[in-house]
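<instruction>
Derive structure tokens from the sequence
<data>
Labelled lines for chain and fold
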Amino acid sequence: MRRNRLIGLISVIFLVGCEVGPDYKFPRLDLPAPDEKSADADRAIDAFMSDKWWKVFPDSSLDKLESLAIAHNHDLRQAIANIEEARAAAGVAVADLMPTVGTKISGDKMYASQKTAIPGKNTLDYLGVANVSYELDFFGKYRRANEAARANLLASRAAKEAVLLTVTADVAKTYFLLRALDAKLAIARRTLKTREESYRVYKSRLQNGYCTELDCLRIESDMASVEATVHDLESVAAKAENALKVLVGCSPRDIISRKITKGQSLEKLKVPSNVPDGMPSDLLQRRPDVVQAEGQLIAANAKIGEAIAMHFPSISLTGIFGFESKSLTDLFSSSSDMWKFSSGISLPIFSGGKISSLSAAAEARYEKILALYEKTVQNAFREVLDSLISRRKNSEIVISRTRQVNALKKSYDIALTQKESGLIGMLDLLDVERNLLAAEMELVGALQNHLNSIVDLCKALGGGWKKNNWQ
């Protein structure tokens, strides 16, 4: 009966207590008011985003590369390990809230010789006990620590999603870079082939006295310039392919020997038509970096309470419940029970200012992380706004560059006809061809930038992140 009362008393004390320190409150931010455009953006984003955001580009090769990156990228593996570490820390914090229970069973036998105070005496003692110890959390020190640990776990999960978003965006951009380099190489090699043919013709004409050496040298110079462009593009393409191999987690051997599967050409890659054109109203819930920053802020706030609780007394309870007997067969009989209960209190009196300094450090850390959170929110709105502008303007640039290339292609066809009719010389034709080459290269760059702007928009909006992923 006494044991039951004692256990009940400990249980009541375990559940009772207060928590010192400030309770977390969402920071006051000067956020834009929702409008009709925000509502339209929310509806568009619901149709636009998915758990695998890169599927807005229907390309099986890109999808395969993204899957490889998710499975093997080393930055992601590190982020996942951080989650497991935070989960373990949260488990330790929960354990600190619970009593510690242990058990011990022992038996002792002692023989005393004839010369002792109890000559020739054999003594037996068998003991089986359960030890219970618990520190009362009257002032919420351990509950604040548990709150901080759970917030850090939330932050680590969000950090992993932020890394995932960055890695998948980098894979998509590097893949588009490779497709753009392939397109530029095709243009440069085609142009080089015509320049080589022109140089061969003019070299023959120079040898037969039908043109000047100056004309031949100018054609050779143009040919060498395009040849250098080809070599430069080949170098950049090789480095981009190696970067993509690292992103998808290839081994060192695969980096050397493996070839990246090429998908659709840049011109055939489809750009999604249902792209949102507005600021979503729930941006702060979509962005994993914002969720991560708030998790760190919650943890820092809880740490203030944990530090303040160190000013207050620590009350510990210990109890021993068990049985003791001189005979092993009688050890667990009702007449052999025994118990012991004790308590203790410790109160910091002088610590040379250590506890006050720890509290001040916790408050300063909160202010620092609050500033980081506000900056993260500020950056989130800026990135969405920038990506919306880039997507719209890059789309317009592609249209303009396409018109330019089409006009120059017609000009080249006309110049070629005039050259064959003897109305203009070869050097005049090369001037038109040079302009066409530059315009085609710029169009490829515009297409790449347009695709990248869609990637940036997906990333700025938080990718395919869903709110219930963080519950």
About this structure: The two ends are 44 Å apart (CA to CA). The chain is about 65% helix and 10% strand. Residues 12-16, 467-471 have pLDDT under 50 and may be disordered.
